[in-house]
Design a protein that fits this description.
Radius of gyration of chain B: 20 Å
Number of strands of chain A: 6
Order of helices and strands of chain B: EHHEEHHHEHHEHEEHEHHEEE
Shape of chain B: globular
Oligomer: heterodimer
Structural class of chain B: alpha+beta
Largest sheet of chain B: 4 strands, mixed
Structural class of chain A: alpha/beta
Number of strands of chain B: 11
Radius of gyration of chain A: 17 Å
Number of helices of chain B: 11
Strand order of the largest sheet of chain B: 5-4-6-11
Shape of chain A: globular
Strand content of chain B: 15-25%
Helix content of chain A: 40-55%
Distance between the termini of chain A: 60 Å
Number of helices of chain A: 5
Largest sheet of chain A: 5 strands, parallel
Helix content of chain B: 25-40%
Chain lengths: 180, 326
């Protein structure tokens, strides 16, 4: 007699997710206000500050608005979200260096896209499989992101010089991802 | 009852088991085949309809229904009468302050302790005494395993994918035990947190560290100092999201509880003293402050068997202990 059993998951991975829209990109960052949704992992805020400084220097940004979330793997507080979506015209999220913070920061980027704000998540190479899985699960399977590689530690025990070097490593790719 | 899960048809149990392994539906151990009849029996035991949503993991767009929870409870080997405890555990995990996404995807590999209080312990045989945190007890083992299978299969926390645990932990197979409410007149954990004595309640505690606090001294103050120092080996930093709800669990073993009772320590007095000592400012390396808002945030639980004079300290991941009445 055949044995009939039930599926224990909500279906094939990502199969039920409606596609998340990607926001239209500006031609350049000149005149744009950069939002930074930092998760507070390690000293990553220092890296974001360095990145903002470099973008400001070369791209004639109109301004910077930064929020640091209340915990590494949660959404911004509602007032933080209102501040970012109310002022930023492009945004970066991260730092994706731990298991739950990397995927949550990717979700932050996707939520910004859905709100019409071009975004990019900065992720350590060690967490690439996690963020790719999250993207697939929530309906953005091919969403690009910017990767930081070794020798930098994923979880952020970096010196100020390393933060500056990491920002320099990613700045061109961040610019590319945020513009058309 | 109408179930909506996709069905699979197999020649026999061995073929079904191999297919479930192949699909990644198990924790590495064999599972019980989730047939329609078995899943319906689970739902009936809890008085739930399949589509009822127990909670969500918003970051992942995941909704956890009663039906999917029941499927995984069957797979874990639960009896139908265990299912209300599984449901309460899942609901507690999916409360916002339990921070499900963080505690299940973390590199740190946090586990979750399910601490059961109230009459359901005796009704189901949930063990709170000798060896209660380990294997050998059907209710403890299968309820804890069902909880983990829901995390794996419904919440999509698969190792190497969304589960990024560096080493992970054997406690992630199953970790469920009861409080020994009968060993003293100490106020049971659930009553401390506002429930009635006749309520049955599950407390879900994320466990980033499980530290043994061994102390052979007969002096209650020394015992409590050792427990505090054990927590302070790792400390507990501030996290704005969890805020004042942050808590630690101290499982007082039988020999320690006997000394404390001899000296007429109430549970509330134990909480107060542990709070005072855990929250002292840091004195240097290997002595970290456990930042807590109030004595009630030291969740004191009586459990374990006689023998070695020791207690267990559970320090959380980025989450608060959450409670759910059955």
């Amino acid at each position: 007699m055949p044995l009939i059993t039930l599926e224990p998951t909500n279906g094939p991975f990502g199969s039920n997710a409606p596609a998340i829209p990607v926001a239209p990109r500006p031609a350049t960052l000149a005149g744009q206000t950069l939002g930074i949704v930092a998760n507070g992992l390690g000293v990553s805020e220092t890296m974001f500050d360095a990145l903002a400084e470099q973008l400001t220097k070369w791209d004639d940004l109109a301004g910077i608005v930064k929020v640091v979330k209340p915990s590494v793997a949660v959404p911004p507080w509602p007032e933080q979200w209102a501040e970012i979506t109310g002022r930023a015209t492009v945004a970066v999220t991260g730092f994706g260096g731990c298991g739950s913070c990397s995927t949550r920061s990717m979700r932050d980027a996707l939520d910004l896209e859905a709100a019409g704000i071009p975004a990019v998540c900065i992720v350590h190479i060690a967490l690439v499989p996690a963020v790719q899985a999250l993207c697939k699960l929530v309906g953005a399977p091919d969403y690009p992101f910017v990767v930081v590689e070794y020798p930098y530690n994923p979880t952020g025990g970096w010196s100020v010089d390393e933060c500056n070097a990491m920002a320099a490593q990613v700045v061109d790719r961040v610019r590319l991802r945020l513009t058309a | 009852m109408t179930l909506t899960s996709a069905t699979f048809t197999y020649e026999d149990y061995p073929h079904a088991l191999e297919a479930y392994y192949e699909a990644g539906y198990t924790d590495g151990l064999p599972v019980v085949p989730p047939t329609v009849e078995a899943v319906e029996a689970m739902l009936a035991a809890a008085g739930l309809r399949g589509p009822e949503v127990l909670g969500e993991v918003p970051t992942r767009n995941v909704s956890v229904t009663a039906e999917k929870t029941a499927v995984n409870a069957v797979m874990a080997g639960c009896l139908p009468e265990y299912f209300p405890v599984v449901v309460a555990s899942v609901r507690a995990l999916l409360q916002p302050l339990a921070n499900c996404h963080s505690t299940t995807a973390t590199l740190a590999g946090a586990a979750h302790a399910l601490i059961v209080n109230g009459p359901v312990r005796e009704q189901l045989g949930i063990v709170s005494g000798q060896a209660c945190m380990g294997p050998g007890f059907r209710a403890n083992a299968t309820i804890g395993r069902a909880f983990r299978l829901v995390i794996r299969n419904v919440c999509r926390t698969v190792p190497g994918v969304l589960d990024r645990a560096t080493f992970s932990w054997p406690l992630r197979y199953s970790f469920c035990f009861g409080e020994n409410e009968e060993s003293s007149d100490w106020t049971p954990l659930h009553v401390v947190h506002g429930y009635g004595r006749d309520d049955s309640v599950v407390t879900v505690m994320s466990v980033h560290e499980l530290l043994k606090a061994g102390e052979l001294s007969p002096e209650s103050e020394v015992i409590l100092e050792t427990i505090s120092q054990t927590a302070r080996l790792r400390g507990l930093p501030v996290d704005s999201f969890v805020g004042d709800a942050r808590g630690v669990v101290v499982v007082i073993g039988v020999e320690h509880q006997r000394r404390l009772l001899d000296d007429r320590w109430t549970k509330e007095a134990v909480q107060q003293r542990l709070f005072e000592r855990m929250t002292r400012p840091t004195a240097g390396k290997y002595d970290s402050q456990v930042v807590l808002a109030a004595p009630a945030n030291v969740l004191v639980v009586a459990a374990g068997g006689p023998g070695i004079a020791e207690s267990e300290v559970m320090l959380p991941h980025l989450a608060a202990p959450t409670h759910q009445k059955l």
